[in-house]
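Notes to self after the Tuesday call (sharing in case useful).
The group wants a holo model before anyone commits to mutagenesis around the pocket. I volunteered. Ligand is coenzyme A. Logging inputs and output together so the record is complete.
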Amino acid sequence: MSSLADVANLSDIAKGGVGAKSASISTREYLQRRSFIELNARERAKALFDSETARELAGPFDRIESPWLAIQGVTPQADDGCIVMRGTIGGNQAVVIAFNGAFQGGGIGEVSGAKLTAALDLACRDSENGKNTSAVLLLETGGVRLQEANLGLAAVAEIISSIIALRAHAPVISVIAGPVGCFGGMSLAAGVSSYIVMTREGRLGLNGPEVIEEESGVEEFDATDRTLIWSIYGGQQRYNQGLIDVLVDDDADQTIKTVNELIAKGVPPINRSEQVDVYRSRIAALDPSTQWEPESVRSFTSHHK
Ligand code: COA
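Result:
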């Protein structure tokens, strides 16, 4: 497993009313909005920072790229599809890590995983030294990068452990905005973060539609059925199930405002992943002999919040 040593540069350079609500806007406002989804990963990360404070760490000119892709006939990318930026958000120290869903489905490989972990660990170290540093994860990812399977799985374990260490000091906010969504091991990483923000266009789940179809057949899950996919994994469904904190429109200003508010709000009194009894009682009340439809899941969870 590559380690933080692979991103040694990072370490040196780095010194240096939110509620659960669904927003809705008028048609005019909708047409005038600045889409967040249409920004690429680097633009999204930069947009979150206070003006002129963002600086990229371990960027493309450092050429820290995956050593595993070329030997499998895949052209690597100079930032390994993972952008790390440091700066301030609403005057607070923050690091933003953004995944480029257009590169290998945003899959986590050895290098991108090490970049994310290093950024979280630096934020944690700074927080422990009295300089609280929040983290924002912009997740556009199909989970573990299939070409780097075991290394990607190891990276996910490190990422989860680093999120749990940091969230005790400063909020870790996962934003799932774009159409790739957040799947596999990275859905677990989102699950342990302090807050999750989604758009309706985003989707969140452990096993992705492609995997379920491949493993269990098209009768079980048709991975081309977009209505089915979004009715199960989509932001609206996850919000109604109480599995995310804030549902935003695809609007850069609204997303930036929400992230600012969550950082200002600070560490939640109890993290979602610590509410074991709540989820245990939900599972106990589930009748697995029934065929569950998205609608029935919604009403079940709304009665078991
Ligand atoms: N590793 C490598 N490549 C991945 C990937 C992963 N984990 N997830 C997606 N991709 C690639 C796809 O192969 C595809 O590549 P191509 O354009 O060269 O064909 C590209 O990303 C887009 O994926 P596609 O499936 O065509 O897009 P989609 O919008 O229909 O679906 C997902 C996106 C993520 C929902 C779907 O790919 C999926 O279900 N992936 C599996 C998720 C999962 O269960 N992961 C578990 C691994 S821990």
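Two things stood out.
DSSP finds twelve helices and seven strands in the chain.
Residues 164 and 182 are 18 Å apart (CA to CA).
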